Structure formats: structure tokens, C-alpha cells
């Protein structure tokens, strides 16, 4: 189990301030959705956690400054599913998933029996066993997304960060991915997902972190975060929110229209 924390973290990319003094923490056993409109800073926040962008402030992994950790140690502790799913090499799916074991391997060492077992488990959980011999660059967008997800699962890290993991997936596989994220958290993992689908976030996630213009606007369960007033202010939409079921149901009704 691992706890991730940001303390007054700011990120400037080029001349644009993208995150502003963000402080928050992510605990084991919790599935957190980071939500907000395009350009809000969601992906930058998780990239700051991973050390992929220069940031001021403090990023900690179990109370240890992440900057003091080696890249391999951080990679063993935090698995990452990036958005975009770009592939440049014609690897088979099995070999692609096997890249998830690299943080565990010493230089020039070979994959062993424990690594092969982890790869097999990851492919089974991501439903890509039947694709193991296919060339990953020849897969459909949805198949490729699941293969990349399997690569992250193969790390078997205590924390998992997924940036827009539902993109390119059909509704059935979207549910499969959210079930997997939910299961990771239930098993004690620290799980963070950047999501655009508010309905999925409300249904599956213990906690929603709503950000806009690089600042945290609301933090808590879906019923607290997703209010009609906030959706109007942040997303510029009118929405109907029903709280009578096991999770809030959100229906977007249309764009907010300025008064004539």
C-alpha cells in the first residue's frame, strides 16, 4: 500500500501556469476520479505526481520526497496508463505487456518465471489473452488501449494512475476497465483515474477531485462534488442530477445560454 501526496505544487509549462498551489493526498484502498473540463490541469496533476513535468512544491510517496527516489523505484511503486496509447514498435501484445516488468529487472537480466506469471495475470485481467500473438501496432484503438492497460497491471505496483483510460473503448470494455480499477482499490491499491465521463466517475469512484484552471474546486464523494451549480459554473452546462439510487445519475441537458 502506498500514499501519494502533493503539497503546494505548482506547474508552469512554457509561459502558462497550469497548476496553482495544489495540495491533496491519495490514500490506499480508494478509487479517486480527477474530473474537470478540457485544459483544467487534470493530466498535468498526475504527471506531476509521476515526476514527468517540472514542479515546485512537494510530491511525496509514503512520506518520502519523490524527487529523492530513483526512477526505477518510483516505477515499481506507481504504475501508469498514459492517454493517447501511442505505439512506435511492432511488438506482440505479450511482449508489450512484458515491458511492465522492466522496473523489476536488473540491467541485462532476463524475465523469469515470476515475471511471466505477472504478465499472464495482467493479460487475463485486461482481456487481451486472445491477442497475445498479435502485433500491437495493428490493433484497433480499443484493443490497443486494453493492451496498454495490461502493461500497467503487469507492474503489480501498489498505486495505479490511469489518464483517460476509457477513451477508445466500447461501453462493455469501459465497464470492464472501471471494474478493474474498482477491484484494484478494493484490494488496497491507491488508484487514480482522470475521467471525462461523470456518470462513470459517480458510479464507481469513492472520491471525485474537481479541478478547473489548475485549482481544486471541490473534493469528496460524487453527491457532494457533482451539483447542478458546479456543473453550470465549471462545464457551462445545465444538468439534471438524481440522487435517489446507489449513485448520482447525471444527465446533461444542454449548454448554458447567455441572457439576451
From TrEMBL:
SMART domains: AAA (SM00382). It holds the Pfam family ABC_tran. Residues 4-238 form the ABC transporter domain. Keywords: ATP-binding, Nucleotide-binding, Translocase, Transport. One of its GO terms (molecular function) is ATP binding. Belongs to the ABC transporter superfamily. Part of the ABC transporter complex HmuTUV involved in hemin import. Responsible for energy coupling to the transport system. This is ABC transporter related. It comes from Sphingopyxis alaskensis (strain DSM 13593 / LMG 18877 / RB2256) (Sphingomonas alaskensis).
Amino acid at each position: 500500500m502506498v500514499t501519494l501526496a502533493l503539497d503546494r505544487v505548482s506547474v508552469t509549462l512554457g509561459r502558462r501556469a497550469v497548476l496553482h498551489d495544489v495540495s491533496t493526498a491519495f490514500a490506499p484502498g480508494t478509487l479517486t476520479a480527477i474530473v474537470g473540463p478540457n485544459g483544467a490541469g487534470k493530466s498535468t496533476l498526475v504527471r506531476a505526481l509521476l515526476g514527468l513535468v517540472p514542479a515546485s512544491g512537494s510530491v511525496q510517496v509514503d512520506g518520502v520526497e519523490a524527487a529523492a527516489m530513483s526512477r526505477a523505484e518510483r516505477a515499481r511503486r506507481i504504475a501508469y496508463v498514459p492517454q493517447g496509447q501511442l505505439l512506435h514498435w511492432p511488438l506482440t501484445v505479450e511482449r508489450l505487456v512484458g515491458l511492465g516488468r522492466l522496473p523489476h529487472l536488473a540491467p541485462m537480466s532476463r524475465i523469469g518465471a515470476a515475471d511471466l506469471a505477472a504478465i499472464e495475470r495482467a493479460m487475463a485481467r485486461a482481456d487481451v489473452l486472445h491477442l497475445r500473438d498479435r502485433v500491437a501496432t495493428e490493433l484497433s484503438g480499443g484493443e490497443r488501449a486494453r493492451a496498454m492497460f495490461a502493461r500497467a497491471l503487469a507492474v503489480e505496483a501498489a498505486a495505479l494512475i490511469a489518464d483517460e483510460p476509457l477513451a477508445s473503448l466500447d461501453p462493455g470494455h469501459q465497464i470492464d476497465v472501471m471494474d478493474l480499477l474498482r477491484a484494484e482499490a478494493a484490494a488496497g491499491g491507491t488508484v487514480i483515474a482522470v475521467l471525462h465521463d461523470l456518470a462513470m466517475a459517480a458510479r464507481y469512484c469513492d472520491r471525485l477531485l474537481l479541478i478547473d484552471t489548475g485549482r481544486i474546486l471541490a473534493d469528496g464523494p460524487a453527491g457532494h462534488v457533482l451539483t447542478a451549480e458546479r456543473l453550470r459554473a465549471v462545464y457551462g452546462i445545465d444538468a439534471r442530477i438524481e440522487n435517489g439510487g446507489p449513485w448520482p445519475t447525471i444527465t446533461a441537458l444542454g449548454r448554458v445560454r447567455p441572457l439576451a
